[in-house]
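2024-03-11 09:14:02 DEBUG pipeline.ingest accepted 1 chain
2024-03-11 09:14:02 DEBUG pipeline.ingest length=543
2024-03-11 09:14:03 DEBUG pipeline.predict start
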Amino acid sequence: MTNRNSWVVILGVVLAICLTIPAVGPVVAQSGSNSGQVIGSPQISVFATSQEFEPGTQDELELTLTNRGSVSRGGPAQYEERVTTARGVVVEVESESAPIEINTGAVGVGNVPTGTSQVPPLDITIREDAEPGTYRVPVSISYDSTRSVDYDSFGPEYSDFNRDVTRYVTIQVRNQSRFEVVSTNTTAQIGDRGTLSVEIENVGSRAARGASVTATSRSDELSFGTGSESSTANVGTWEPGERRTVEYTVEMTDDATLREYTLDINTNYRDTDGIDRSSRTLNVGVRPLAEQSFSLANVTTDLRVGEEGTISGTIINQGPAPASNPVVVLSTTNENIVIDSPEYPTSDIAPGERADFEYTVTASEAASASPQQFNFTTRYRNSRGNIRTSDSLETTERIKPQRDRFTVESSIEGIEAGSSQTVTIQITNNGNDSLRNVEAKAFVSDPLSSDNDDAIVDGLAPGETAEFNISLSAAGGALAKNYPVSIDFQYQMPDGDTELSSTYVVVAPVTASEEGGFPTELAIGVLILVGILGIVGWRRRRS
């Protein structure tokens, strides 16, 4: 009985052990995978992407951060990344002994994991008197990091620290050619083409070989040559301290505003080591001249419908440039106004000076006695010898009504019926032209007649009066009343053209014969009767 009880106890113990072993194994394994510690740290270094700079320039310092983070005790990947990442990185550059000024303060980079990260460009100025050479520039880097991560089934615990480290980068101030714009000047006017001169000095300490200077416009209103936005001029070898004047042909559009326009100036060259280099971009302002303009003064005209007259006045050069070989051109859209010679050349006109002009113009009889518009333009050569035409200048002048070429008066007081009389006709030149070979011709009808009805004078100046004598006879049976005498004139104009005037009418009063006189008709009848009687008597005597 005792032995039997002993085996029962032993079997119970064995069974308990067997049941216990499977449960213990998993617990130990689970405890090993959910707890532990990861230890590491970021390893930050910095280097300068841009290293060479020129004295007297403003440039960008480009930096790159490299994080070679290390892990001294490993674990899950997310915790290893945690201990090797620099968080909230802030970079600040100090000039220390380097001849530079830092224009940008501290800049944030953010989180920097292992690998490389770019720092936003830092604006720096290299002093004008910077000595060429190599300089170490300190870079302060501050960031947060995690030294260790303790983790178990309840979650991780971080040991965080803030770190400040200083690293150094090397920059080089090189001894090279450098360029500065000394002055600019242009002869280009708004709406015209001219020359742009840019004077540039090599202020560096070394010569530039095979140099060329490119000017680029930043505005559509200013172009180069045949409309290009840039132009390049070859300069060749350019010694230190030497000044060169580079010229470009530039053109301003008609609608350009009178202001300064910005140009970018870049110089490309080979340095003394044969390396191709480009200078920093220089910005210059170019102010064109105002648009060439003219004005009118003292415009007058004596034009009348049906007559030749003149239009005269003065053209004034308002500048800003001289006008060489100017020609004032007159035009009108009225087809009833004829300009003999529309171009009037004058001598050169400097800014502020003036020149007179006069045109011979004819207003035909179909023209209207009303205000008429006339247009004046000035064609000239600019400073480059190119022909240019100014904007049109408009003026309105009134054309006077038509008038008779002559005024005619007569001395006819009365012609007795049956008698003749010499009549004086006075003619006055009522126009503005001197006339030649003025021939008068009288026309009468029954009961008036004339055996001397024409006359001529050699010349008749404006306002001058001449007299013509003609003979008029009135028939004996003419009634006592006024009869018309028509007179017209043929004459030569100053240009040699022969013209015929309109017909002028003067009045010829005819009076009755004096009382007691022997009527002409009766006398004629008596004579006829006497003649008949005489013939009859002669025939009888012969028979």
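2024-03-11 09:14:41 DEBUG pipeline.report Residues 179-286 form a domain with the Immunoglobulin-like fold (CATH 2.60.40.10).
2024-03-11 09:14:41 DEBUG pipeline.predict end
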